Amino acid sequence: MNGLHVFLSAFLLVFIAELGDKTQIAGFSLAAESGETLSVFLGASGALVCSTLLAVLLGHKLTVIIPRRILKIVSGALFILSGAYMLVRAVMKL
Amino acid sequence: MFSISTLFTAFLLVFVAELGDKTQLVALSITSTSRKPLSVFLATSLALVLSSLIAVVFGKIASGLIPAYTRYISAGLFIVFGVYIIVSRDSPKIKDCFLEAVAVENEIAGLLPKIFNKRSPAERSTDNLCVVDITGQDRSHAGILKSLISKKSLFKDDINDYDELDRLIEKLGKKTNIRRLPFRGAVQAIIVKEKAVIDTFSFIHNHLDLEHHEEEEFQRVLEMLIEEDRRHIRLLSAFLKDADP
């Protein structure tokens, strides 16, 4: 496979896989809730680029270093905590 | 428009959520099959940046339309996703193992002729048949694996031992610069790769239950692949015995 072919297939695969995915909905919700388009865009895309870099550099070593089960629990807990925080702020009209 | 705390929240949430996620797995499997990490990194990053751009633009539009409810909806969505992430099953890992195995079989087929080119012309003429034999078989293994991957029904019930599967995938993906090694080292490295493939096939073979007819056939195919790769190791080991230490 040449470079362009790899580039295009990676781009399309990831782009389609990400449409409607949880991180896109998280970006959508954060932007809607805070109205701070620029910070959410920079934060979310920065995080995505970093995680891709890790994937390309570390490969499957990542899930050997940090077990998948723990990653899932931490990530789920972060989502629940942010949701609860948003809910509290919405109820208290902050 | 801009606040450091929102930026940080977005970063942390998205970063942790993406670790080990399917997008990362896609990036991984393309990197390992194509061996072009820079292209994969650039393309994946661009796709992700675009997808977050779409997300925030629509988020901004939505916040203007339904200001009273957006905050409740967002909060609810976050909690639902949190619960979903914790209780959801992982993506099928056997498939990832197979993708790695395809890459390794192709890699061996590509490297073997180059390794044997290092031998003297006299030796090469006798090696040739054996190299063609192994290369051809490994290429057809890659093809067989690809056709197995496309059979969705085989991956319905996945193996639950994710830690072991992760270890197998790591072993398969281990990078050694075989091309730079001298003949002996290169052949040894190829043997290590063949062994990793055999371990993967044996693991999957031993952990499938034999209820469906389709799985019986699947097991027979795996047994054949294991058998042939074992023969490759025997052939390659024979070369090591003959070659000067």
Order of helices and strands of chain A: HHHHH
- Average pLDDT of chain B, rounded to a whole number, is 81
**Number of helices, counting only DSSP H or I runs of 4 residues or more of chain A:** 5
Strand content of chain A: under 5%
Q: Please estimate the helix content of chain B.
A: over 70%
Oligomer: heterodimer
Question: Gyration radius of chain B, to the nearest Å?
Answer: 24 Å
Alpha-carbon Rg of chain A, integer: 16 Å
Number of helices of chain B: 9
Q: Please tell me the overall pLDDT of chain A.
A: 81
User: Largest chain interface and its two residue counts?
Assistant: A-B, 81 and 85 residues
Structural class of chain B: mainly alpha
Beta content of chain B: under 5%
- Distance between termini of chain B? 69 Å
Report the order of strands and helices of chain B.
Answer: HHHHHHHHH
Describe this structure in words.
The complex is a heterodimer of chains A (about 90) and B (about 240). Chain A is mainly α. Chain A has helices spanning about 5-20, 20-35, 35-60, 60-65, 70-90. Chain A is about 85% helix and about 0% strand. The relative contact order of chain A is 0.05. The N and C termini of chain B lie far apart (about 70 Å). Chain B has nine helices and no strands. With about 240 residues, chain B is mainly α. In chain B, helix 2 (about 20-35) packs antiparallel against helix 3 and helix 5 runs parallel beside helix 7. The interface between A and B is large, with 81 and 85 residues.
What's the helix and strand layout?
The complex is a heterodimer of chains A (94) and B (245).
Chain A: H1 3-18, H2 22-34, H3 37-58, H4 61-65, H5 68-91
Helix pairs in contact in A: 2-3
Chain B: H1 4-18, H2 22-34, H3 37-65, H4 67-87, H5 93-116, H6 121-149, H7 162-173, H8 183-207, H9 213-242
Produce a short descriptive summary:
With about 90 residues, chain A is mainly alpha-helical. Helices cover about 85% and strands about 0% of the residues of chain A.
